[in-house]
Amino acid sequence: MAQTHKGAKTVDPTDLNSPTWKEYDAKMSALHARAQNVLRNEYAREQKDECLNLQSEAEKRDCLVHEALLTQNNYEVYAKALAALLRVRQPIVDPLEPMPPDRGAKFEKAERAWIIYRNTTCSAMSDAYWGGSIQGQIETACLQDITRKHMDELEALYKDK
């Protein structure tokens, strides 16, 4: 039997100016803005390509590692904002309505699986360069590229949520 909101405080669905609805809207707007800000930051960094004109292999390697870490950090902040956004529940209109599933938990489970996929894919792909000095750079570039593509994918999936 599905759990309901029985006994919970309800709100009038037509009174969008009520404090409860305003609080809900403010929370959703803040989380959405945080996610969008991180995404814009990552898009700007991708366009800039800080490592493009470096001369030495050591400089390129260090730059690539640094940039990939920034991308990973942006991904983590973005994913956390999306998970939080998915956890925000609308104000209760009908106390007998079933409780919605925890979409944030499902999202986090999917992201953990995606990280395993990404890491395994890039490790397997870079194995073609096994033993070479470029293997690490290939794997790092792969991780950054797939992470950025996944952020695009998440934006397409959740932009209106």
TrEMBL record:
Q: Which Pfam families match?
A: LprI (PF07007)
Alphabetical list of Gene3D superfamilies matching this protein: 1.20.1270.180
Lysozyme inhibitor LprI-like N-terminal domain: residues covered:
80-154
Q: Can you say what this protein is called?
A: Lysozyme inhibitor LprI-like N-terminal domain-containing protein
What organism is recorded for this protein? Edaphobacter acidisoli
